[in-house]
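Before the break, one more example. Copy the sequence into your notebook; we will annotate it together after we see the structure.
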Amino acid sequence: MIRILLLGLVLAGVWYLYRMVTKQTGAGPSAGDRFQAAQEANSGPETTAEVAAEEANQGEDMQECPVCRAYLPASATEGCGRPDCPIPALAAARETEPRGGSAA
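Here is what the structure looks like once it is written out:
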């Protein structure tokens, strides 16, 4: 019984010591206030430069080379480097097809 009581006292002492060490002073803003201020500051891009930078960070679609199974960007024109790679031919066909949809 005395062991359980001593264990409880040791745990309580460690807990209070931990609370005393990590206790924040009243001089600065609390963690909740700092989090809310950070959320308000990072609400979204505000200038065109920030919007352009955000669009530049977008990923690019990849396509698989049917010959070597390497993944290349969909806008690739060189291919995977093998002589029988069909990517350069596909890129040339993509450049010659008309843009803007169907002609009526």
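Residues 4 and 10 are 10 Å apart (CA to CA). The first strand starts at residue 62 and ends at 64. Try to locate both features in your own notes.
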